[in-house]
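Quick illustration, no need to memorize.
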Amino acid sequence: MISVKALAHEIRQSRTSAVAALNEHLEVIDEMEGEINAFNIVNRDIAMQSAQKIDDLIASGKDPGPLSGVPIALKDNLCTRGIPTTCSSKILEGWEPPYDATVVERLRSAGAVIIGKTNLDEFAMGSSTENSAFGPTRNPRDLSRVPGGSSGGSAAAVAAGFAPAALGSDTGGSIRQPAALCGVVGVKPTYGLVSRYGLVAFASSFDQIGPLTTTVADSALILEVIGGHDPFDSTSIPSPTPDFSARLNEGVEGLKVGLISELLDGVDEDVASRLHEAADALRKGGARVESVSVPAVEYGLTAYYLIAPAEASSNLARYDGVRYGMRAQGKDVAGMNAITRREGFGDEVIARIMLGTFALSAGYYDAYYGKAQKVRTLTRQDFDRVYADNDVLLSPTSPSVAFEFGDRSDPMTMYRCDTCTIPSNLVGDPAISVPFGTGAHDLPVGVQVLARQLDEEKMFQVASFLESQSEGGTKL
């Protein structure tokens, strides 16, 4: 599979055309999409028009941008003007946003070609992409297994070669976990680094948009394109986007890396083995790697599944059958609201709305939601303490390799898939999943590099080194 950087270079140098590149990827989609179901919609005509415009600009001597002609897929919770945006839910059936998300505008301004909208767990609530109104997405590495979630469609699209890159959203690990299970790179940036304007909200204090790619360098490039201040997002950080690619080849000599001990509990042996191999590679590269303790992460899963559903119960109240999406028939307005939501939302979404509403209800707010927010503060304090003596932290991305469909039917078993990724969302720090060898059934294993807020440069530096040391990389 060709990288984003390589393809954009080839197109800008007129060694190939944007139209030809698009056609090549559409051929792969035609061949495999029926088995994988990565897309909710493929924008063939619109994408072809965009590709032709790129070629016309290059022919006239103009530079379309760093992503010139590169096909990129979008998770179907990112608003695209005039193109259905469903969040893989029946309740948004037929809705076409009147505007583009900021990240979509920035991709297009950089010359990218939007190839389609990818499948996800409904409203991004899930860890397997089994909870979609349009059917599950299958893992290209093994069609009997899940791709992870909720950005499973985006991860599968990149892993299958449908597009060199995709965007996903990460609320509790929804970029990194599917990246690990599909064997691609996935990044959750610092909260506020990338605008959320046009991202359909799940849990607003957690949600963040990021890239999925085949290489660390490609993720750095795309984050440079989509990052930066946006006045349309009140949580957007008012500072310019750094050069995330600057340190990619600097190695890890002299860096201090902390191996989070609590995030090894409950991790499968094959995954733990790959993590320790990654730690050994960092040591050989000149880094100091020591075990560290972040005690509050043991409560991260519990805190997240109180705070995130509480925010979801508020955000999803807007889907009432009146303003947009589907509308069921009822005897009166209240009846219509209730029936629309009952028929429009899937079981997992309904369960989380009910849980969140309960956590916010009178008499239970302090006992549940209030305590969960205190755990969030304790987690921030624990990370600050550990970062005082470490440049980055290391952990597994997922406790296991990709599992078979139906294997995590028990909710708590499924929720534990997010154990290693949730802490970064709780505190708003950046994290990246990098493929590092394989585990059981020869399936990919992802290693997670965590960094302090706005220190993506160091995160990418370490991730790039690990990439070079993994199977297929350049060894020392």
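Residues 472-476 have pLDDT under 50 and may be disordered.
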